[in-house]
Amino acid sequence: MYDIIFLGAGPGGYHASELAASQGKKVAVIEGNKFGGVCLNVGCIPTKTFLHFSNSLEVWNESIGIGIKGENFSIDQEEIVDYKDDKVKFLVKGTEMGVKKSGAHIFKGWGEILPSEKEGEFRVKVNDEILTTNNLVIATGSSPFVPNFIKGVDKYYEKGSVDSKIITSNEILSLKKVPKELVIVGAGVIGLELGLHFLRSGSNVTMIDISDRVAPVIDATIAKSFHDTLISQGIKFKLNTKVTEITDEEVIFENADGEVSSIKYDKTLLAIGRRPNLKGIGLENLESLEYDQNKIVTNNKLETNIPGVFAIGDVNGKVMLAHTAYKEGEVVVSNILGKDASINYDLVPWVIYGMPEIAEVGINEERAKELGIDYKIKQMPMLYSGRFVIQNPKYRNEFIKVILDKKDEKILGIQIYSEYASEIIGIATVLIHAEYTVDKVRDIIFAHPTIHEILKDVIIH
């Protein structure tokens, strides 16, 4: 019998399995696909590979005539995909080696939960072998949502095929030919990041979303600035608009006024969210488990309503980010070891990559209003950073925004719209976790010239 069985070796599963094994627990990790899950294979890492090259091209082009000479630089999509595949393969191998080194037992195959024969004991079948445990952690990840309610999707989408007219984020990350006309259904994080890459690679990009703003989860003022920047860079938007049908040549859509229009396309990317991988893993054999098609219900300790069964990562539908899954795995292992651990989802940082980047941690202004907090805002343009000014030939109205508690001036949230936001957010996260106030920040010495030192300037002034 195993102390813990992890069903899935994505960010949550592989990280937590290493941690548990290092604590002396007998651990089994079951994975039917590749180690690293969505993030490493068809998510975070591949998309950042794409953006590394297209952002570099953007910087290079902006520098021509002010220190750089040259012309006719362009993206070679086929070479980028090959490079991405090599790097992902290397990282997958390293991830698996880390789990092996920890002492956890790896089972390669699709796991299925079987009916329990004893109360509090769970059975999982993999490759005709039955494993047992008192602690089962479900970490099977998610897949792109394919909306079959849009007419034509079932006809023109072929799962796993880059030749399909309609594709998801899984297929586009292996696409070696840049489509001339790319229509993206959805203006969230996935669509925005991939849209920016293909725009700089030569695609005409049109994004369609039923919402009235891009990336609705982010701070409203940042969303507006980002939207304006994307339009100036060449992305076309159809917001407050729903796609009703996709034919062999056109995407047909209807706006809020009921007006129907269409646009021709070479590829249509479905980027309207993800759904947990809950089918085919035997959840029906966990009698009384509370779940639906969107999530396995858990509390902030990641426990389900069945003692001994936990759910981490995308399957619990809370915050679908790799680092959230890491932390959730740590929380589960701590609780299994007898500690009292939980997670505060307001403290999870997240990033939209591109040029500029967007990053947030803590609560934003809308969340503060929702919670009824008496808050105040401090905001500063990135032009106050000397290093930012010299390294960015083109200014895109970037800024940093800080939410403070009016009563004690404790930092509640930080939102960053700027190049290097993905790096600055690390320091911002530490400040909020440590419950820093304005006075405590005054005592910190930041290196100069750095981009992140502007955090102190905006907070104390």
What does this structure look like?
43% of the residues are buried. This protein is α/β, with parallel strands linked by helices. The radius of gyration is 23 Å and the shape is globular. The N and C termini lie far apart (59 Å). It has 14 helices and 25 strands. The chain folds into three domains: 211 residues, FAD/NAD(P)-binding domain; 127 residues, FAD/NAD(P)-binding domain, CATH 3.50.50.60; 105 residues, Enolase-like, domain 1, CATH 3.30.390.
List keywords for this structure.
single chain, alpha/beta, FAD/NAD(P)-binding domain, Enolase-like, domain 1, five-stranded parallel β-sheet, 25 strands, 24% strand
Quick summary of this structure?
The chain is of the alpha/beta class and 461 residues long. It is built from 14 helices and 25 strands. It has helices spanning 11-22, 37-42, 44-63, 77-102, 153-156, 169-172, 189-201, 220-233, 322-336, 365-371, 386-391, 421-433, 438-442, 454-460, and strands at residues 4-7, 27-31, 105-108, 112-114, 122-126, 129-133, 136-138, 142-144, 166-168, 181-185, 204-208, 236-238, 241-246, 250-255, 260-264, 267-270, 274-276, 291-292, 295-296, 309-311, 350-352, 357-362, 375-381, 399-405, 411-418.
